[in-house]
């Protein structure tokens, strides 16, 4: 039921040139030895890409890692990089994907 409602909303709010618009894919690079487990990066990530690791660094702190299945969800906004007081995170944006590929919408759904 909820999925059907989301499909209905999606069809009403789609962008005309969705297959041409690109969004960056950010690659999160964490230096675990610099992290002090403040969790700012996890709390401020708008796409909920990061989570706390189960492992600890040499100082005994948990460091952030990319959540399983969220590897393509980072949009390289660099919020985690900006809020990290220890400069333990770097974001690299080298790839782009189109929105229709990201959301799994076929090109024919847009009439083009």
UniProtKB/TrEMBL annotation:
Residues 26-55, 62-94 form the 4Fe-4S ferredoxin-type domain. It holds the Pfam family Fer4_7. Transmembrane segments: none annotated. It comes from the Archaea. SUPFAM superfamilies: 4Fe-4S ferredoxins. InterPro entries: 4Fe4S_Fe-S-bd (IPR017896), 4Fe4S_Fe_S_CS (IPR017900), Polyferredoxin-like_ET (IPR052977). PANTHER family: POLYFERREDOXIN PROTEIN FWDF (PTHR43193:SF2), PTHR43193. This is 4Fe-4S ferredoxin-type domain-containing protein. It comes from Vulcanisaeta souniana JCM 11219.
């Amino acid at each position: 039921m909820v999925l059907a409602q989301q499909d209905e909303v999606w069809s009403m709010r789609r962008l005309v040139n969705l297959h041409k618009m690109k969004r960056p894919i950010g690659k999160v690079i964490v230096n675990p030895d610099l992290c002090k487990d403040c969790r700012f990066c996890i709390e401020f990530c708008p796409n909920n890409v990061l989570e706390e690791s189960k492992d600890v660094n040499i100082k005994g702190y948990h460091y952030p890692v990319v959540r399983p299945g969220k590897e393509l969800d980072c949009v390289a906004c660099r919020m985690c990089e900006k809020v990290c007081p220890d400069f333990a995170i770097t974001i690299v944006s080298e790839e782009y994907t189109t929105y229709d590929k990201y959301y799994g919408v076929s090109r024919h759904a847009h009439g083009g």
